[in-house]
Amino acid sequence: MAHNHPAFHAGGTEIFAKELSAELEKRSSVSSTFLAAALKQHRRPHPGTSFAMEQENPADFVITGGHFTPVSLSQSDTFGFLNELARLLSDLKPDIVHIHHILLFGIETFAVIRNAVPHAKIVMTLHDYYLICANDGLMRTTQGRLCEAASPTKCSRCLSGETDVTMALREQTVRTALRVVDEFVAPSEFLKSVFVKWGLKAEKIRVIHNGYPLSTVETPAQDTVCPSYDFGFFGHLNEAKGAKVFLEACQRVQDQNSGAVSAAVYGSDRFASDAQKEELAELKAALKGKVSFFGDYDRRNVVRLMQTVRWVVVPSVWWENDPLIVQEAKITRRPILCSDIGGMAERVVPGKDGFHFRSGDAGALASVMQEIISGSRSLEKTEDTSTAMPGCVEAYREVYRDVLNDRP
Q1: What is the pTM of this model?
Q2: Is residue 120 within a helix (H) or strand (E), and if so which, with residue range?
Q3: From CA 204, how far away is CA 183, in angstroms rounded?
Q4: Dist. CA 295–CA 265, nearest whole Å
Q5: Could you tell me the end-to-end alpha-carbon distance of the chain, in angstroms, rounded to an integer?
Q6: Nearest by Cα to 62 from 114, 115, 9
């Protein structure tokens, strides 16, 4: 189960969840069914049902509509949405229900699963911090500061309009719902540590790095491709992904060099707020066309596009877990400049895969970029250290075997 389907919303969690389901079906004796939740603007339900057809993937189920509230993680459509979810589970009779996200489904999903298929085991992969943080799961305050730990009082101060009571009820509801989960999986040691600090038992969380779905991208070309740019940014141009940090760093490098910085930006600002779009437009104008902006790109082409740059920059200002961009850079054998926090810092070894810089600090990023341009900082040829999908699939099969045999 995952919020959204990569056919209409190609986020990292959805891509990995869909690929894991497909690989389980293809490589082993597991019979796997993929269930995605969707908003009505993505897929329209059939009359009289909450289900919609996914034409490119007719074997998958898409449940759409409902009344989901992001802050409370609650799904209030018990008569339609949750009732149909329960009916589907009762018909499928799964041995294991593997949850990758409860966004759009609702926190009530755990109780629905337990009531509809009481003997099924429940596995959940913790892809981010939505269960802890009501601010879009970013573990950042609305003022832009990193949050080390959540509490009802801190959350109510952060989110205007929410009270200590509503935040306390949210936390207690989530903690109660998670009691039915047999085993958790974290794609990074860092994310595991956050949830252990929050209160989950360490022995119930297994760390399995997300396997990279090579079948979803073009086969990498040979390393004979000559890069056109020194630095490249890939992804959504929004605050959390650090697009502003990257552009400000480019501006500083340009000023220091009294000329153009050799950089490319692949991605759009369609998920940015109006205020963020204005800031990005001002930075773009200040760079006077010296940085190349290519807009949205087809993910299947990401490896080819990354081959046009010498270094991939991942300047996220939130605790990224195991971002696809990092693995894509590894597959392309491109070194990485990333923020020194979260799963990014864990996956990029300084001096081997790339270098770290202080999160949110455009000056620190600009300094490293300047050192690279001047030749005072460099790496030997980087290797592909991404996580292979077959090993990831086998690790998950071990989880499934263990929970079915009641082994911790």
Answers
A1: 0.91
A2: none
A3: 5
A4: 7
A5: 23
A6: 9
